[in-house]
Amino acid sequence: MSGEPSSEAILACKGLSKHFGGVRALSDVSFEARRGEVTAVIGDNGAGKSTLIRCLVGVNVPDDGEIFFDGRRHPFANPDEARKAGIETVHQNLSLIDELTVVQNLFLNREIVRRVGPLALLDRPAMKREARAMLSRLSINVPSVSARVRRLSGGQRQAISICRAVGSGAKVVVMDEPTAALGVQETANVEALIRRLREQAVSVVLVSHNFDQVRRLSDRIWVMRAGRVVATVQSAETTGNELVALVTGAA
Ligand SMILES: Nc1ncnc2c1ncn2[C@@H]1O[C@H](COP(=O)(O)OP(=O)(O)OP(=O)(O)O)[C@@H](O)[C@H]1O
């Protein structure tokens, strides 16, 4: 990528570098996720995928390089800034609170309140209604919105995390290995959910070790090796073998 990112880019970076002590986690990485697409990032263990994502969403501060969001240069000092701009991250280790209900998790830190004179009271019926609507828009099934999330399966919890991200109006949802801990059926459910996000014009950045999954789900695949982007391929035009070769350096 030379100059500014393309006009299709929603989240991009140019010349990003990051080291941790003597380890160069990222070296001169340029990347872009396009509007309304699912963009996958693949690579072997330690290739730099998570560091790239963490720099894009303000968790890590890069040593060098520029980050662009929605057409503007936009370095995020922390994840809250990225969230306010419209980027939500669904982490490998889910960020739900086990002892809270589905509704409470969906509205954590953005509760709906109603004013009664000088008081601001939680509007629980409104949050329940809205929670049901949010889940229904994404065809997510849970036993009850009043269930504590610790009672839910891994796939349902992952779906709630994604629903919360989208419910806050995110333009981009970044997912780091969203199905790594899930069984076959639950993985299929989360994959269906990612497809629905795409249908609803939410841009998705997907980090995954599962090459079949990224070929099924994504529009474009960025391949990283040893802290660098080594290839960008169209998902529809690649094969599992080609991806393995690119990731391992045999290509
Ligand atoms: N906070 C940190 N402190 C020290 N080294 C780090 C830190 N985060 C990442 N690294 C190192 O940076 C390199 C890239 O790590 P990163 O986690 O980005 O790779 P990855 O592609 O996401 O790997 P994996 O698939 O195993 O999660 C690795 O050598 C890793 O050990």
Automatic annotation (TrEMBL):
GO terms for molecular function: ATP binding; ATP hydrolysis activity. Transmembrane segments: none annotated. CDD domains: ABC_Carb_Monos_I. It holds the Pfam family ABC_tran. It comes from the Bacteria. Residues 11-251 form the ABC transporter domain. SUPFAM superfamilies: P-loop containing nucleoside triphosphate hydrolases. Keywords: ATP-binding, Nucleotide-binding. Belongs to the ABC transporter superfamily. This is ABC transporter ATP-binding protein. It comes from Kumtagia ephedrae.
